[in-house]
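yo

u said u wanted the structure for the complex thing, so here. seqs first:
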Amino acid sequence: MKRLLGLALAAVLITGIMPVSAESYQSYTYNAYDEPVYAPDMYITSEVYNGESLGIGDLNQPTDLICGKDGFLYLTDSKNNRIVKISEELKAEKVFDSFKQGENTLTLSSPTNVFVTGDGTLYISDNGNRRVIICSADGNVIKVLEKPESELFPQEKEFLPMDLVVTSTGVLYVLCDGIYQGAVVFDEKNEFSGFYGSNTVEASFKVIADYFWKKIATKEQRSKMSRYVPVQYSALAIDSEDFVYAAVSSTDDLSARIRKLNPLGNNILTGTDGRTLSFGDSSSYTYGGATYSTAFESVTVGDTMFAALDRTDGKVFVYSQDGDLLSVFGGKGNYKGCFTDAVAVTFLGDSLLVLDAKKGAITRFEMTDYGGVLLKALEVYTDGRYEESLELWQEVLKYSSSSYLANLGYGKALYQIGEYKEAMECFERANDKQRYSEAYKMYRNNIIRENFVWFAAGAVLIIILLAVCIKLSLFSKAFYFIKRKIKLGKGRKQV
Amino acid sequence: MKYSEMSKRQYLFYILIHPVTGFEEMKFNRKGSLKIANLLCVLFCFAVIFRQVLSGFLFRAQRIEKINVIWSVLGCVGLLFLFTLSNWLFCTLLDGKGRLPEIWIVSCYSMLPFILISIPLTILGHAFTLEESFFYTAMTVLLYAWSGLLLFIGTMSVHQFNISKNIMTVIFTLIGILICLFLLLLLFTLLRNVYIFGVTIYNELSFRA
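structre next:
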């Protein structure tokens, strides 16, 4: 019996320690100390679709997959020069490869991205033809945007549209290759009106050192040195309130890898309570002389969260609205659930789709129960329904007891309903000293209030004791000390 | 009671408040005890570990999971010992009168305020919030300042230096500690390389034999 019990215990321990996952990847997240820790899967792979199963033949280097505002998926099949409209069940609905403009017919050349508004209007960045095509859902061209003839636009540069988004009022933001002033803005009437959300040159040590050398270098030397330009955005996404999410593929500044830009172009995703957010993996690794770090290639926004895709390692990072990391999953490889060259990510209802350019395949991930509970808890908590969120947080903690987010949320909820002792424990696990201190202060006040009689009695007792002690011994002791001091002084003099 | 009549144990606490006369007398009347010094060294280690492990969450410098007791002990004893050694090496060159055991005794005795305050302070730390952290910080500063002052006066007395010369030797001592650490690092790295070299030779020979 004992042996059996031992065996059972061992089994529980082993399965408890070894993260059980049927997936080809191991989901993880960052704990309160910024260390990567294994976490329950928030998404699991459900199915992989290729061109064949979509019903449109093989894909050739697709570059983008988005969920349009009209509820359909749009796939940019770049080297096949077409845009494919896909239904929710992942069956091709319509292929856009030629567009009618009066009597002319326009075709695409290496399109890179597409954006679709609620009424089904397509905005296609026709990169090879250096233009943006705006067309209706039935393929009739509404307008073609080419290089703006404005002095603001650097005329020596080509117009190479990459990613684009459209606000609910019809303002178009286009990311262009080689344009460092920010996204190119076309207003409601599709007229060029300036730039949006420009990035700045990062002040790294090398930039400063080079600045010094450039000051003393000759003209020829200067021309050989590298130029520093602001970091370019790699992808754009827009949420229902017209906030633009911009991803950066190469930067050392962890907090700037993803930005949420307000209509003025300022980043508002900067973290609350003085906490700085960081996106992507915090450490890079070196292999074969090259350094690899997170490079966000695509970003997508859902109702309560956003996700970004790391092209380096083929990993998907899912964040809450406030920029807290929920889960990281995926990876490089040929297994189902891993990618060889992941280029685009998009939410589709509760599931998440990732496009692999090399495999020419779309992988569908379904949210797990854990993911559902986590999201629900976040949503309820953000609404301010603390008591309701308690149970949900508890549920999340059952899955992942060391989760930073869950401990913080649970602690905050406990604090709100006055359970300070438990709140303290949660804040300790979440390593939040400020909140712990606040909870402790309340807890201490409560203890003092409840046991006030004892504290008062103790204080009085101590005062009486002190008084008695002083009365009895201080005078004689002080006298003794003074006497000894005098003797000591004399003694020294004699030596 | 005269200081000459005090037992060695009583003397320990006398030094705490009267470091100048205390250390002078210790030098000339042999009031220091190696046994007590070694005991203090052990207690010092204990106090440091106590502080690391049992501090309240708000005042914990290190996560409990990251604490390695062996390194803590090595750090405490090693630092005291390195200080003693380095101080002795430099001061002997600069006409210091102190002998090695004397410096060791002085170094260990100087840790007494740390031992006496840090343990109650660690316990008291559990009662403070961040808003009251000033008191905790102030006490911590006092702790280090007191021990540091004792150490300074102690080395001064033991070598019979004046203040300016002692400041100089303390600086030299600190540099000496750094040099010692560097040499130790070098030694271990080289030994490791020699070891790997030996193992490689053995492996190659064993395959060819």
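The longest helix of chain A spans residues 452-494. Chain A has two domains: 46-199+231-362, 386-450.
cya
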